[in-house]
Specification:
8-stranded parallel barrel; 13 helices
């Protein structure tokens, strides 16, 4: 399988330099990451919301090695919030954050990440929107869930992400499927060992549906993070059986993938949120997008082969 190989490559500094220097890389990266600065991303937000879409904004960058870099990541989100305030979109534009960007892996990282992310959550609430904590590799999840629980004491709208391929996730889903909770379920995009995660696509798909059923039958607000047409259909059926109307859950898909489907779902009355990343430290995010779906890798390779 190519996916694990690509995920391993996402941690290679040598390959990062090669990919970054390739002339073809920038236009391909733009398919998934439409800007490097907040000024570049504002027109993307305006265009998407004019089409009835909603967004969750991600400032890319995970390789944080100093507290100063973690503080800079916090400040980048605060700058984004200032721009969102002027657009007055409320929850139509929320934010997704990776706690690794806020210093989670550093010494004293749990408290450091909490102290950095709290001002972002506070500022988001002040303009009428919210934040979702992204899931990263399995070693970080207990810390992420603890920070999520702490933030929800003052900001109950704070969301979190669970990954269907992990064995633990069904139990996490049962715990989180409570009134007022916002939970995005994804298949998972990190290289995890067989001791903690399903490895084959059929197993992962079945796990995803089991987790999604738990969320749909619970009292929280499910966020369906998938581009898989079959999963989209099953999600609608599970919602119908659970007595949920279109506004009682939402779909989430990545910027640059199945864009026509984004618009179709929105036109049918569903809440359709586009996960939109921007920033200069795009390499890790880009490589995971290639690993998630063979078509993404083929798109990249075709571009390389057809460029002089």
């Amino acid at each position: 399988m190519l996916g694990p190989v690509i995920l391993a490559a996402s941690h290679s500094d040598r390959l990062r330099r090669v990919v970054s220097a390739a002339p073809v890389t920038k236009p391909v990266v733009n398919r998934f990451i439409p800007g490097e600065s907040v000024d570049q991303i504002v027109p993307i937000i305006v265009d998407a919301t004019s089409k009835g879409l909603e967004l969750t904004m991600d400032v890319v960058g995970e390789d944080i090695t100093t507290p100063e870099q973690a503080a800079a990541a916090r400040d980048a989100y605060l700058e984004l919030i200032e721009h969102l305030k002027a657009l007055d979109l409320g929850t139509r534009a929320e934010m997704s954050v990776k706690l690794s960007m806020f210093g989670q892996a550093l010494e004293g990282g749990h408290e450091l990440a909490l102290s950095n992310v709290r001002p972002v959550v506070e500022a988001a609430a002040a303009i009428g929107t919210t934040v979702t904590l992204d899931a990263e590799d399995h070693t970080t999840l207990d810390s992420m869930f603890a920070i999520h629980e702490e933030l929800r004491k003052d900001f109950p709208q704070t969301g979190c992400v669970i990954q269907a391929y992990l064995f633990r996730t069904e139990d996490d889903a049962r715990r989180l499927a409570a009134a007022g909770s916002r939970v995005r379920v994804v298949k998972g995009a990190y290289k995890e060992p067989a001791s903690v995660a399903y490895q084959e696509k059929p197993e992962i798909d079945k796990a995803y549906i089991r987790v999604l059923r738990i969320l749909m039958e619970g009292d929280g607000y499910p966020m369906v993070g998938s581009h898989d047409p079959r999963i989209v259909e099953i999600a609608q059926e599970l919602a119908r059986r659970a007595g949920r109307k279109p506004g009682d859950f939402e779909f989430q898909m990545l910027y640059g993938i199945r864009t026509e489907e984004h618009v179709r779902l929105a036109r049918e009355g569903h809440r359709m949120r586009v996960y939109t990343a921007y920033g200069t430290d795009w390499y890790g995010y880009f490589m995971r997008r290639l690993a998630e779906k063979p078509a993404n890798l083929l798109f990249f390779l075709r571009s390389v082969l057809t460029k002089n």
